[in-house]
Design goal:
single chain; alpha+beta; Nucleoside Triphosphate Pyrophosphohydrolase; six-stranded mixed β-sheet; 6 strands; about 35% strand; elongated
Length: about 180
């Protein structure tokens, strides 16, 4: 014989509150000119990466990438297609989401910009894809950036001027 079920809703103990999450947003850009890709090495890193950095509060992904390129390399760029997204859990309360884009050179000559950037190189794509002195995530972005068909589809949502991405920055005012 089957036991009967209770007549009312089943109650369960309340769940404990979740800790406030903290997620950092990072951006990086693959700039290819003349069959070479631009990479740099920050003073606090042992490996080279594509130019990259964190998004400031209230800043869009695109604006952050344009700013980071200017700060690290002295170049003015236009943000193009989205190449990859990576999410990494650092601790139970902290994670990091990284977006890599193809970028187009608009103006300027590349140079390492102190105090953060120690070195800058333009490396043939084939060499960059195999170079263990370039971080693995940057090599993956370079691989996608070197293939014209490797991209997310163009978004038709608000913000659709940027291929494959719907991004807005909001300002909620003072806390």
């Amino acid at each position: 014989m089957v036991d009967s079920l209770p007549d009312g809703p089943v109650s369960s103990p309340p769940l404990p509150p979740l800790p406030p999450p903290h997620t950092r947003l990072g951006v990086g850009g693959v700039l290819i000119r003349g069959g070479k890709v631009l990479v740099n090495r920050a003073v606090y890193r042992t490996r080279f990466t594509i130019p990259s950095g964190y998004v400031d509060p209230g800043e869009s992904l695109e604006a952050a990438l344009v700013r980071e390129f200017e700060e690290e390399t002295g170049l003015s760029v236009r943000v193009g297609r989205l190449l990859l997204v990576r999410h990494k859990v650092i601790t139970a309360e902290e994670s990091d989401v990284y977006f890599a884009f193809a970028v187009e050179h608009l103006a300027g000559e590349p140079s390492a910009r102190p105090p953060e950037i120690a070195e800058l190189r333009e490396v043939p794509i084939d060499e960059a894809l195999e170079a263990d002195w370039i971080a693995e995530l940057s090599r993956l972005a370079i691989r996608f950036g070197s293939k014209p068909d490797a991209a997310w589809p163009r978004s038709d949502w608000k913000g659709g001027e940027f291929p494959g991405l719907a991004s807005e920055a909001y300002y909620a005012g003072p806390p």
